[in-house]
Structure to design on (429 residues):
């Protein structure tokens, strides 16, 4: 069968790579894809934007696509799954109504309050004066979030009231995130360790993916501005059986059941970004309605199952029959970013050493890349590459990933040097 992957980032490269490994899959189309997807066996880019919904439906029909899998959040929130369903085409992902869980942080917080899902105390504002009064009355640190989609960057952790007031002003004025900041959520700053919990849902049944942990701050030691993610590893040693059961019982199942009860049945990948406090209690920081990026890259490296069949089972309501298998080895993924990220970045810098990196045994997933007029791979975004590797221990996987990183260069490249450090500290005791 032919499969279509919607999106052009590192998550979508990993999804296309995993789908192409299936014996059921004859060809994977990626819209629009990147230089990395174009270089994969059995994979072909099609020049259609991820948010051009009518053109995506048309391509799926013309190419006789049997299964479409959606990568990024923007087309989900815009209703790409609804459009495919109306056209009688199989498309894995939540409808626009269900995807509001990610599309509006204010909706997500109110939903959690209605269904008893543990999260931080919060208030929602669309008026700067009211937000400012609330900020002045409450202690810091606090978190200011743009309500709408902001590519993983619409969150400011404010250490002082002045920082919080400035963040609220920048968002509500439209200066920072445009319409996405027309409403803001102001919430308490939770303390603890972050954990990514991703499950696949078929509307009723839930199958958890392997655990993973993301690194949001730009700089080593979890310092600097928030990003879409500077690296990830799987599994996360923090996730033991007791915590797994609590997350399923207190977060994932109440979320799926609550959405169904509100007439928004959920199908697709459901991501809960969690904070685990010192006593092991989970609370939800955010929901995402798709696989995480960069979590997808190490997760899909470890998946020891037919990804195409798993996606079909989710679409057909058969996840109750699915038992996901995982490579026992940990995987680490290190994001290589362009200078200036998460702000504006230069594009078009020639990337050297890609083949050398893969020769080390590392898998290089492309995020922001394209080809120049001479056919060379060049930068085309903020998070450019994610170098992933497996190892017998997290420390070995980390070393292997950084060997790949060391082989690659372009002008202004930067990356964190401590991806996986918490897991390694637990390994060494």
């Amino acid at each position: 069968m032919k499969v279509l992957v919607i999106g052009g980032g590192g998550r979508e490269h990993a999804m296309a790579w995993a789908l192409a490994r299936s014996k059921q899959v004859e060809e994977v189309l990626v819209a629009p894809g990147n230089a990395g997807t174009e270089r994969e066996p059995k994979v072909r880019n099609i020049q259609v934007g991820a948010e051009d919904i009518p053109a995506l439906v048309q391509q799926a029909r013309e190419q006789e696509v049997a299964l479409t899998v959606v990568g990024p959040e923007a087309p989900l929130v815009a209703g790409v799954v609804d459009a495919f369903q109306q056209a009688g085409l199989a498309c894995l992902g939540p409808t626009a109504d269900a995807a509001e869980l990610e599309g509006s942080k204010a909706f997500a917080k109110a939903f959690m309050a209605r269904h008893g899902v543990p999260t931080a105390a919060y208030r929602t504002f669309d008026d700067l004066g009211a937000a400012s009064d609330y900020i002045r009355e409450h202690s810091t640190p606090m978190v200011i979030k743009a309500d709408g989609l902001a590519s993983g960057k619409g969150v400011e952790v404010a250490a002082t009231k002045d920082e919080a007031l400035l963040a609220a002003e920048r968002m509500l004025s439209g200066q920072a995130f445009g319409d996405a900041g027309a409403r803001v959520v102001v919430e308490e700053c939770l303390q603890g360790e972050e954990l990514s919990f991703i499950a696949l849902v078929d509307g009723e049944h839930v199958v958890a993916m392997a655990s993973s942990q993301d690194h949001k701050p730009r700089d080593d030691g979890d310092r600097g501005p928030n990003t879409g993610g500077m690296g990830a590893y799987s599994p996360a040693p923090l996730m033991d059986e007791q915590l797994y059961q609590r997350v399923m019982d207190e977060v994932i199942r109440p979320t799926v059941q609550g959405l169904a009860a509100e007439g928004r049945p959920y199908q697709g990948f459901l991501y809960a970004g969690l904070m685990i406090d010192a006593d092991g209690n989970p609370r939800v920081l955010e929901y995402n309605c798709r696989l995480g990026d960069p979590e997808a890259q190490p997760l899909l490296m470890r998946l020891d199952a037919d990804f195409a069949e798993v996606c079909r089972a989710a679409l057909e309501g058969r996840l109750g029959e699915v038992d996901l298998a995982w490579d026992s080895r940990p995987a680490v993924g290190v994001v290589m970013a362009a200078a200036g990220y998460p702000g504006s970045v230069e594009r078009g810098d020639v990337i050297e050493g890609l083949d050398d990196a893969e020769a080390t045994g590392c898998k290089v997933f492309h995020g922001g890349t394209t080809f120049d007029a001479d056919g060379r791979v060049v930068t085309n975004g903020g998070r450019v590459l994610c170098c992933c590797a497996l190892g017998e221990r997290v420390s070995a996987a980390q070393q292997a990933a950084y060997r790949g990183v060391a082989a690659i260069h372009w002008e202004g490249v930067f990356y964190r040097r401590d991806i996986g450090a918490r897991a390694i500290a637990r390994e060494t005791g």
Observations:
- The radius of gyration is 21 Å.
- The mean pLDDT is 96.
